[in-house]
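The step that takes the researchers longest sounds almost clerical: writing a folded protein down as plain text. The outcome of that step, for a single protein, is printed below.
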Amino acid sequence: MKAATFALRASAARDAGHDVLLIAVAAVVALTDVAGAQRGGGTPQGVRDVTVIEIAGVVAAGSTWTIAWQGTDNADGIVGTSDGGLLFAQEQPNRISKLDRNDHVSVFLDDTHGTGAVAIDAKGRVLAVERTCTDPGGQSDRCREPTVVGVLSPERKVLTDAFAGKPLGRLNDLVVDSKGGAYFTVGGAFYVSASGVVASLGENIRANGIMLSPDEKTLYVTNGATILAFEVQADGSTTNRRDFARLEAGGNGDGMAIDAGGRLYVTSAPGVQVFGPDGKYLGLIPTPRNAISVAFAGPNKQTLYVVGSGALGADGKEFITPQGVRNNAKTIYKLPMVARGFVGRAK
């Protein structure tokens, strides 16, 4: 879900007055940036010792992260399931896997077209951003399959594969609403209605994570080191764009989750930064690895899950790859919480 450079490149490449243009060009440039960064070394930062400090109403002091899963074949875009499990996207193996409440893993869906993030709507449909063959470590120059925001289950359906007549590029994240539409990010931020109409949320947004408030009246979008908020209208369109909060513990925002009290949880390199519904910074939940994705799951949605970059190999040592080979190792951690995730929506 790393794509902080997309929107800057896209806004610099305007074409004939469109709000957000040349998405495909921006995606190619961003893919080059990501690939360059990840080819340079196969060694993640590794595990660090962290101490969880109390955040009132959110997490108790001394709570401990434990490993729910780790592997060398990626994990991203997590979402909780109604039975207390957790779905996670595995782009390179081309599947979505599931952890049950006891951390047993199984394949949930195969042939997922390089899914990078997952959502579940009110009808139980599994939606995803399908990155197809845009993986910077793959052979994207040999593939012409368009990237898609779509439904994977129970029936497969494309919601959109273009904006303003141009390909979407390498998609990042999504959240679904109760109207059958979805908000998604690909550098900028967009909305696709149930009928497939796509609208941009505006220019100059370096979007990655995206989240709706419990009442669906506010949409949150990461924008580098800040978080934007929008008012959501009855038709799904947005108005009143404003700065909602700043990541006071540092880093750029990636994935997001929300709890039953409307508090927002944002992943960043130091960990999960927590904000009140009014945008007030409440504190940092430090994570053992740089965190990229976050979700509430487990019994009563009272467990916080994060995906961290890197993992230990079978030998118990940090998994590394040769120079020039992308390292997709990830670890999923879980933490008992005082706060409870919002139960009115999977994500």
